[in-house]
Amino acid sequence: MSLALLSLAALCWGAASPEPTIQCSSENGPSPEWKVHHALTPGDLRELRVEPVKTRVAPEEHSLLMNISWILRADASILMLKATKICVTSKNNFQTYSCVRCNYTEAFQSQTRPSGGKWMFSYIGFPVELNTVYFVGAHNIPSANINEDGPSWSANFTSPGCLDHIMKYKKKCIEAGSLWDPNITACKKNEKMVEVNFTTSPLGDRYMALIQSNAVLGFSTVWKNKLTRTSVVIPVTGESEGAVVQLVPYFRTCGHDCIRHKGTVMLCPKTGFHNTLDNNRRVLGGWLPLLLAALLVATWVLMVGIYLLWRHERIKKTSFPDTTLLPPIKVLVVYPSEICFQHTVCYFTEFLQNHCRSEVILEKWQKKKIAEMGPVQWLTTQKKAADKVIFLLSNDVNTTCDGTCGRSKGSPRENSQDLFPLAFNLFCSDLRSQTRLHKYMVVCFKDADTKDDYSALNACPKYHLMKDTTAFCKELLHIKENVSSEKRS
Ligand SMILES: *[C@@H]1O[C@H](CO)[C@@H](O)[C@H](O)[C@H]1NC(C)=O
Ligand SMILES: *[C@@H]1O[C@H](CO)[C@@H](O)[C@H](O)[C@H]1NC(C)=O
Ligand SMILES: *[C@@H]1O[C@H](CO)[C@@H](O)[C@H](O)[C@H]1NC(C)=O
Ligand SMILES: *[C@@H]1O[C@H](CO)[C@@H](O)[C@H](O)[C@H]1NC(C)=O
Ligand SMILES: *[C@@H]1O[C@H](CO)[C@@H](O)[C@H](O)[C@H]1NC(C)=O
After folding, report:
1. pLDDT value, residue 341
2. Domain end marker among 218, 247, 267
3. By Cβ atoms counted within 10 A, which residue in 34, 255, 398, 448 is the most buried?
4. What is the pLDDT of residues 73-86, one digit of tens each?
5. Nearest to 84 by CA among 38, 127, 47, 135
6. Rounded to the nearest whole angstrom, what is the distance from the C-alpha of residue 103 to the centroid of ligand 1?
7. Residue 185: CB within 6 Å of ligand 5?
């Protein structure tokens, strides 16, 4: 009886032989099959695909891995197939290389699945970093013999940055604010003021809210170090309805490179303020005490309003000297080539153009001219044309530049000429002259130390951007006023 059952089971097993699955483990060296000569080897893959997948490693933490899937070619050589080996090379700041070998648990009996369709497998592994180019190659085992061209398949895969819907779960992105939703609302209170509300984050303690249409209409810095809804009234110098609010956060790990958010300025809904006044007038009849109280409140509100207006005028006057009619200041910005261009230099240029009415001259924008004139001639000409020469320094070269910066595509150190030392040497004699020194400034984002080689720069006025912003702009605009009054006189 039991014997009959056993044989029946064996029959069933034989009829439905299990489908091959894969068992993968790392194999960085050559495969053992390499050492043996194979008369017949399997063909290559039909297709190879890579995509990132999110896996939860802890309730609040995600890890990102590659989902590498491949399809086998439906031909007779599949009978020889034992395993598939996948190797991944990443090309970020340094190159890494690692392989896995996936054994098929059973020998293939047919060119296609019993259910029809091609054989397809997928392996999840290889951690994915931000903004990195990966080269994924795969070949079947036993591979071609030594001195024979091995069939193989490869795919390139460039991982996205923190804005991607999967990458945003990386710890580094979360720390840069990828999951923070400031939920910005902004409205035009009147011709001179815009009210901006947003939710702050515990990741940092400082925000800059800018109102801009074509030019910057106004900005304000907000200090808050926990999660809370906050409201700020920003004085503006122009039509603000429909303008853009840009919220720039400064979080601990990303500094000025954090993810920014935008909103739109609407019209504020009419408040009940006038209505209550009107109502009070209507019930004027017998409610003298109430009327008196309302009058008192109204007077108080008016006084506060006048005071606030007066203060804003004063603030505006101090931060924006009357420069509307003056031509822009020409500023030549020189920076060491290891600085992260996209973020640091672009950000600074944007800042100069938007806040300090400057016209910026950058080496990066005049490559052709430099090639024609030669760097020395170009620098000398630009120095003459510029009102100010700014040496932009940044100590935090690596941390600001990896990840969100997109530096992975070829090293800019090689293809960008470093004009910084040349500029420094050319302008060095000016730095020793009291009369010509006023043309130079040093700006740094964090507490950058002037390198010993460039210690002569210590003579220049030095500003920490985002800390001495007002002083910095004043210094720039002040110079312009002097220059234009000289020209006028
Ligand atoms: C795959 O097969 C090779 C060669 O037979 C063996 O060395 C390896 O341990 C196997 N790997 C797994 C995960 O079974
Ligand atoms: C991996 O990719 C394959 C093929 O696209 C898909 O069938 C599979 O569901 C993916 N796995 C995960 C965990 O997303
Ligand atoms: C992948 O990129 C490398 C260099 O970046 C290139 O040489 C190669 O042709 C690319 N391969 C594919 C399959 O796109
Ligand atoms: C954003 O703020 C508005 C107004 O405060 C609120 O109604 C809305 O629910 C908030 N949205 C989110 C996603 O928090
Ligand atoms: C901002 O918040 C204040 C206080 O909650 C509210 O009165 C005001 O309407 C809000 N403004 C905007 C533009 O959301």
Report:
1. 64
2. 267
3. 255
4. 888 888 889 999 99
5. 47
6. 6
7. yes
Look up the domain containing 105 and give its range: 22-169
Three-class DSSP category at 106:
coil
Tell how many helices (H) and how many strands (E) occur in the chain.
12, 20
Is 464 found in the same domain as 385? yes
For ligand 5, atom 13, the nearest C-alpha belongs to 186
- Cα of 94 from ligand 3 centre, angstroms: 18
Residue 196, phi then psi, degrees to nearest 5: -120, 130
Binding pocket residue ranges, ligand 1, CB within 6 Å: 23, 25, 32, 83, 101, 103
Q: Do 27 and 117 have their domain in common? A: yes
Q: Is the pTM of this model over 0.85?
A: no
Q: What's the 46 CA to ligand 2 centre distance in angstroms?
A: 17
User: How confident is the prediction for the chain on average, in pLDDT?
Assistant: 77
Does residue 402 lie in a domain region? no
> Measured from the CA of 187, which atom of ligand 5 is nearest?
13
Which residue's C-alpha comes closest to atom 3 of ligand 5? 231
Task: Please indicate, yes or no, if residue 319 is contained in any of the structural domains.
Answer: no
pLDDT for residue 405 is more than 50: no
Task: Examine the domain organization and report whether 344 and 241 are in the same domain.
Answer: no
Asked if the bond preceding 142 is cis, omega within 30° of 0, the reply is: yes
CATH code, domain carrying 107 = 2.60.40.2160
pLDDT band at 472 (very low <50, low <70, confident <90, very high): confident
pLDDT value of residue 18: 81
What is the 184 CA–ligand 4 centroid distance (Å)? 9
Going from the Cα of 199 to the center of ligand 4, the distance in angstroms, rounded, reads 9
pLDDT per position as a tens digit, 443-468: 876 655 566 667 777 777 787 766 67
Q: Are 31 and 63 within one domain?
A: yes
Per-residue pLDDT at 201 exceeds 90: yes
* Domains identified in the chain, total number: 3
183 lines ligand 4 (CB under 6 A): yes
* Ligand 3 proximity of 455 Cβ (cutoff 6 Å): no
- Would strands 462-464 and 440-444 be described as parallel, antiparallel, or unpaired? parallel
Query: 181 C-alpha to center of ligand 4: Å?
Result: 10
Where residue 146 falls among pLDDT bands split at 50, 70, 90? low
Q: Give the start-end residues of each E strand in 119-236.
A: 120-127, 133-141, 153-158, 185-190, 193-199, 204-212, 216-223, 229-235
* Domain end position, chosen among 102, 137, 169: 169
Q: What is the mean pLDDT of residues 280-300?
A: 63
> What are the structure tokens assigned to 486, written together?
């000289």
What is the enclosing helix (H) or strand (E) of 488? helix 469-488
Q: How confident is the model over 213-240, as pLDDT tens digits?
A: 888 899 999 998 889 999 999 999 989 9
C-beta of 154 in contact with ligand 3 (< 6 A)? yes
Token representation of residue 241: 């309805």
pLDDT of residue 23: 95
Q: Which residue type, as a one-letter code, is found at position 401? A: C
Ligand 2 pocket, CB under 6 A: 53, 67, 69, 122, 124
pLDDT of residue 411: 37
